[in-house]
Amino acid sequence: MSYTGRSRLTDFARGLGALMVLALLLIGCPVAMYAMGGSPIPDRLPSWEEISATLIRQDTDQSVFLATILLIGWGAWCLFIITVCAEMMNYLAGRSRPALPRPVRPLQHLVRDLVATATLTFSAAASLTTSASAVTHTHTVTGVHAVAGPESGGQEHLSPGQEAPQREPTESAWTPLLADETPVHPETDRRSWRTHIVMRGETLWALARRTYGSGARYPKIFKASRSIDQPDGVPALTDPGLLHPGQHVRLPLSGAPDGASSPPRARSPRATTQAAPSGRGKSSGTPSPAPPGSTSEKSTTSQVPSPVVAPPADHSASPTPPVSNGQESGSPLAISLPSGSRIGLGLAAALCVAVAATRLHRRRRRPLEIDSEFSEHNSEPPIAAPVLKARKAHLDTYAERAAPIPSDPELVRKDLSAAEPDHLVVGVRDGQALTIPLAGLSLGLSGDGAHAAARAIATELLAKAHRYRAEVLMPQTDAQALFPGDDITDLSTVLDGLTITPSLDEAIDCMEAELLRRGRILEMTEQPDVSALRTDDPAEPLPTVLLIASVPAYNGNVHGLATLGHRYGIGVLALGAWPSGTSVKLSSDVTVTDAHGPNAERLAGAHLFHLTTIDAAGMLQTIRTATGTEAEAGSSPPSEDAPSEAEPRTASIVVPAPRPSEEAPRPPVRLDVLGHVHLHTSDGPIDTGLRQRARDLLAYLALHPDGVTRDRASADLWPDDSPESVAPTFNTAVSNIRSVLRAATGLSEPMYVIHSAGKYRIDHEVVEVDLWRVTGALAEAQQATDDATRIKALTLVAGHCAGEFASGLTQEWAEIHREHLRRVTSDALANLARLIQEDDPERALLVLEQAITHDPYSEPLYRRIMRLQARLDRPDAVRRTYRLLTARLNELDAEPEEETRKLVNSSTSTSNRN
Questions:
Q1: Could you tell me if 542 and 569 are in contact, meaning their C-beta atoms sit under 8 angstroms apart?
Q2: What is the pLDDT of residues 325-382, one digit of tens each?
């Protein structure tokens, strides 16, 4: 966003100039033409003979020419009047203004620019004069536009055997927090299904009834929708009896084979809602059926019933959908952190991507250790514990729906195709996710919990702001109030999606300049709004802009921007009372205790997500390191009460288990922990019977071949479990391992997991572990006294590093050891290539190619390959390697370092000279 220094007086002058031009065109032009040529309306109609004589005779006095000019002028003025009236009526009606034919389009653009300039600067005049009437006027306009929300397909609750009565359609209780909202058109795919966004109060039964004419066909919708990737912050669809607002479901298109049975046309497309007997619908618990004869509320904010499937009793022959018992099934709606913060899955997903990007940037920059101490590496700043907890919560959602857990590169690649965030889940109300749209947001937060809630919203947007998807604008004082310290200022220097201005006036200048720029783009592209422009041209970077600031009540500029926000992708989150939109008051536990405005009913009683300043600081640091600027961050160490990711003890990685003698038979069981955790016998893999916690314990014991105490293992494996339950959980996992292996091998004597001297360990006599072959080879390489022995040991490492450690586990201990093992393995392969490149450069190239397959983002590895290729006089191979590195780094929004560019340039220059 370009920064402009226009003052309020300049804005007022521009608006006054626009008004004067409009007055000149509307009044001055006709007055001037009337003075020159009189009235354009003749007192009588001329005859044909008079017209012919006038056209035939010579125009010596220029009267015909002047009359023609005046006629054209009056016609142009009439066209101008018609265009102004059409634009004003469309603007007041809130309709999209279609483009006129091309000959008239420049005139239409002129009218729009004049009206837009005059409208914006009226707010500047209000600010200069501190007029209370301007605020009242803006409030009135906002209220008029805010009631036009999208229609919601609500839920019908019928008593047993009761037919659905014909009711007048009522407004849905789900109303976006917009100043001027337009209906949302669901996307359609290439098949016979369309995507529907679940509104508050909707159920699968109601959707099936409206779509198929029978609610009993809800399983078809559930089956088609359960595989949809839901937006960030919205739980996956795992229970047909529980829908959350904002979830995406698939419905058949009109005319599709499965949707041939459509609901009766007499039924209103808007579903009606019943008021709960207590006066307010609740989303937890099983609702009581509506009593016969009950009527729906006739207000625009009708109460919302419990979103459970409630089929009529006369459908007992059909399969009955499950009913929610008030427990949240599937993914949780909120994540509680030890500090007292409470965040949603949307922020957890964004932080998960930030952690993945941070680790890949660290791999990219980490220098290789290719001497005898290659297993040692420089320590890096730890990742804050709240961030790691949020990451685990997000990854656990994959396990809950039996989906493969993505690796760090997969998370980053998926983030490449992520769309601009158009909404945020900001809290929970009655067990349902509370969603707010961003474009056109007009919301004020006040009370004790206002800053904590605004901090959570701002942090989530900042985590999603990279790649030009969102932009947060804050004055300096408000930024420091929300994020004390230098973290937010440091982040603004590296994150394109964050702008901190010295004052509110300069923030308003930026917003107005951006609004005018977007208005010109919309005119040139002939699109009605920013959302349509993104659909038509996804390459156009027009992120949603959100102003977060303390706005004085008399500042009409911000209120004017809020009224125009939806069309231009702009929103306002005010810190304090907000008369122009919806204003809520938050208690110390961030619960809405009072609400005013168009969406007060929807927000009343909601519990909003919130962040402490310490947790927010750790998250901002991770967002910064995700941009690849960790070396310049200069971040302060985390506080003692916020434990963070720590480096593992190297000994637990490189010390191998005792090897059985060569005469001993091969163990009957093989445990693979490089990749997914699997057990194998001579008959094949063991696919059934082993519980997940038993797999976790096997992977953990594989890292500790000398044994580990139960307390330490339990603390690492299940840190969130109560002390009373960890001992039974550990014993159950050990018993499960033994019983499964005894059944698979037919051997009842071995214990498989031995308990000796207070420690538990895997019995290496009957179980071999693939990780131990790698750690054993690494230990031999460290202890080698000559290059031949070291080459032999490192060759074993190259032959056994099949995959990353325990790729399906999300616990912190697993991720720490996974990263550490990747580093020492990459260093080992680089060291092997160094040792053999003089005698066998081709083999050294193969080893380095294996290394970048194992660690595809390590730029030092690519440079070693390029140097070896240049030494072999292969400039084309050097350029191909450079292009591969560029493509990999493009996923991280990064570019190769100057040293790498010089390397490829020098190789190309040498090739050209030869």
A1: yes
A2: 333 334 578 899 989 999 999 999 999 999 999 999 999 988 887 744 444 445 678 8
Whether the CB-CB separation of 642 and 384 falls below 8 Å is answered with yes
CA distance 569 to 306: 33
To the question of pTM greater than 0.90 for the whole model, the response is: no
User: How do the residues of the chain divide into helix, strand and coil, expressed in percent and rounded to 5?
Assistant: 45, 10, 40
Reduced to 3 states (helix: H, G, I; strand: E, B; else coil), residue 831 is helix
Kindly state the tokens that stand for 1: 């966003």
Assign domain 185-263 to its CATH architecture.
Roll (3.10)
Question: For residue range 725-782, what is the model confidence (pLDDT) as tens digits?
Answer: 889 999 999 999 999 999 999 998 999 999 999 999 999 889 999 999 888 888 888 8
Count of all residues that appear for the chain in the document: 914
DSSP string for 694-737: HHHHHHHHHT-TT-B-HHHHHHHH-TTS-HHHHHHHHHHHHHHH
Fold of 334-632: Rossmann fold (3.40.50)
pLDDT tens for residues 632-683?
434 444 443 444 444 444 334 445 666 655 666 789 999 999 988 999 998 8
Among residues 162, 197, 431, 160, which one has the least CA distance to residue 304? 431
Name the fold adopted by 784-913: 1.25.40
Could you tell me the residue ranges of all domains in the chain?
A: 8-42+61-129, 185-263, 334-632, 651-770, 784-913
3-state secondary structure 227-258: CCCCCCCCCCCCCCCCCCCCCEEEEECCCCHH
Domain 651-770, CATH: 1.10.10.10
